[in-house]
Structure formats: structure tokens, C-alpha cells
């Protein structure tokens, strides 16, 4: 993990950047176009969107206007809950691809484990993967029991599990299971939607390293071997979020941050959601 272009190698050999840009709640149009272009200009290679974010068109426009070749980038999108099921997932994928204006995706995820639907959805992802339309496939918000259930019937194992992960929710059980299965964990909401930025433990560690609290959290993600995709629309913040490759947390600092865990979610519970 030397710089923003550093990658982890997924189970199928595809290389995925350790740090990328998330665009959740970034408005389609100029806001998302600018955000993605700032990131690419700053050296980011990975952009994470989803159908439900309603900004795939803007992401695609920014990619086109960035002047960076498609092969250099790693683009993720996700199938939304209402589109889950075999045929509907195939259609949803084509719609996302068209909106992005791309010929393939680097990663496509099942957004949430919708009971009774996610296995058929996964079969559609396997087909798209085998057809060469997606370089890697995975899931999001899957707990251990969801993964066990999915893997039992899967021909291709998920390569990524994107979960809510931050110092207040360390998800040890899920991460340990994924590690055993060769599934790369990725963090959404790594900064707990701002809840941690004034935390005393983190502030002290940040001061010692001459870094911001956000940078310390993102560095902690990376040292836990978790891919991270912080969101911002401000150019200076996008640049700052990526400035985490020139320092290292020692073992004691990592443990102090791990100990902040309260199993506290800022997002929905994957075992109890109704959307």
C-alpha cells in the first residue's frame, strides 16, 4: 500500500484499488461530474456508484471527460433490491451499463441480501461474469449466514463483500469469515457519516501523526486490509482523503481504534431492513 494506485488482488486475479471514491448521495449532474473528475485528476482509479444513487449517468460523463483510458479505471455499481431476481437483474445491469456509457463493469454487487431473491440475483451475476461483462462480482451488506447460504449453491464465490465498517462497527466475525473464504472486504461509510471526527482517541492519534481524524480512520481501514471508498464532493477533501500512504499506525494505535467498537450502525441492519 504505497500510493493511491496500490491494489489488492481479488480471488480471480483481478486487481482492485485499496482506496476509491464513493458517490452515495452525490447529486447527478454537475456535482457528481465534478466530484469524479476531481478524484481522477488526483490519481484515484476506483469509483463506486449504484443504481439507487441515481447518478450513474454523471459518473459515466465524468469518466468520458476525464481523459483517462477506461482500462486504467475500476468502476463498481450495484443491483438494487427492487430489481433482484434473475431476469430483472440482467435488465438492471444493462440499464446501469448504458447509463454509465461503458462496455463492461469492473465490479457489480448485490446491494442488499433480499430474502428469497439474492440466490437468483447471484445466478444472473454469474452469467454476466461468465459472459465477460463484469470483471469481478460480489455482494454488499451480507452477514456470515447470508454468505454461507449463497456459497452453498454458487458456482462462483463472491469476490468482494462491501459492508458498513468503521471504528464503531468493526464487524470482526464477518471479516474473519471473508478472509477464510478469500472474499475481499470493502468499507462503506468508513467515517460513520461524521460521527467519529471529534472522537478523543482518534484526535490524539491524528495529532501525533500530523494528520486529520478522517485520515487516521482511512489508514486504519487499510491496515485492517479493508478496501475503503470515502465520499466527498469537495476537491480539497478528496485530495486529503487520499493522503494516507505516507504514515503508519503502530500496533498499539490500531488496537486503541479497534477498542472503540460498539457494534453501532449508522445505516440499516442487514438482518432487519424493509426496502
Automatic annotation (TrEMBL):
PROSITE patterns: ALDOKETO_REDUCTASE_2, ALDOKETO_REDUCTASE_3. Residues 20-261 form the NADP-dependent oxidoreductase domain. Transmembrane segments: none annotated. Substrate binds at residue 111. The active site is at 53 (proton donor). Keywords: NADP, Oxidoreductase. The keyword Transmembrane does not apply. GO terms for molecular function: oxidoreductase activity, acting on the CH-OH group of donors, NAD or NADP as acceptor. The record marks 78 as: Lowers pKa of active site Tyr. Belongs to the aldo/keto reductase family. This is Oxidoreductase, aldo/keto reductase family. It comes from Priestia megaterium (strain ATCC 12872 / QMB1551) (Bacillus megaterium). The lineage of its organism: Bacteria, Bacillati, Bacillota, Bacilli, Bacillales.
Amino acid at each position: 500500500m504505497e500510493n493511491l494506485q496500490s491494489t489488492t488482488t481479488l480471488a480471480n486475479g483481478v486487481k482492485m484499488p485499496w482506496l476509491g471514491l464513493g458517490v452515495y448521495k452525490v447529486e447527478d449532474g454537475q456535482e457528481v461530474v465534478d466530484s469524479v473528475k476531481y478524484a481522477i485528476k488526483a490519481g484515484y482509479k476506483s469509483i463506486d456508484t449504484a443504481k439507487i444513487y441515481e447518478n450513474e449517468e454523471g459518473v459515466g460523463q465524468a469518466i468520458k471527460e476525464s481523459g483517462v483510458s477506461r482500462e486504467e479505471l475500476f468502476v463498481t455499481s450495484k443491483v438494487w433490491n427492487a430489481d433482484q431476481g434473475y431476469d430483472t437483474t440482467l435488465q438492471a445491469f444493462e440499464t446501469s451499463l448504458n447509463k454509465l456509457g461503458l462496455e463492461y463493469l469492473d465490479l457489480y454487487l448485490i446491494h442488499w441480501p433480499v430474502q428469497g431473491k439474492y440466490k437468483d440475483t447471484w445466478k444472473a451475476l454469474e452469467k454476466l461474469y461468465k459472459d465477460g461483462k463484469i470483471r469481478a462480482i460480489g455482494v454488499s451488506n451480507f452477514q456470515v449466514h447470508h454468505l454461507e447460504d449463497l456459497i452453498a449453491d454458487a458456482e462462483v464465490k463472491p469476490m468482494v463483500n462491501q459492508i458498513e465498517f468503521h471504528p464503531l462497527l468493526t464487524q470482526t466475525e464477518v471479516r474473519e469469515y471473508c478472509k477464510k473464504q478469500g472474499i475481499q472486504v470493502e468499507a462503506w461509510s468508513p467515517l460513520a457519516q461524521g460521527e467519529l471526527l471529534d472522537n478523543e482517541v482518534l484526535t490524539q492519534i491524528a495529532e501525533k501523526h500530523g494528520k486529520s481524524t478522517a485520515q487516521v480512520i482511512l489508514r486504519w481501514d487499510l491496515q485492517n486490509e479493508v478496501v475503503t471508498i470515502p465520499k466527498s464532493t469537495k476537491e480539497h477533501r478528496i485530495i486529503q482523503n487520499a493522503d494516507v500512504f505516507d504514515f503508519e499506525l503502530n500496533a498499539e494505535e490500531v488496537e486503541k481504534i479497534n477498542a472503540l467498537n460498539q457494534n453501532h450502525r449508522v445505516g440499516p441492519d442487514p438482518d432487519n431492513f424493509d426496502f
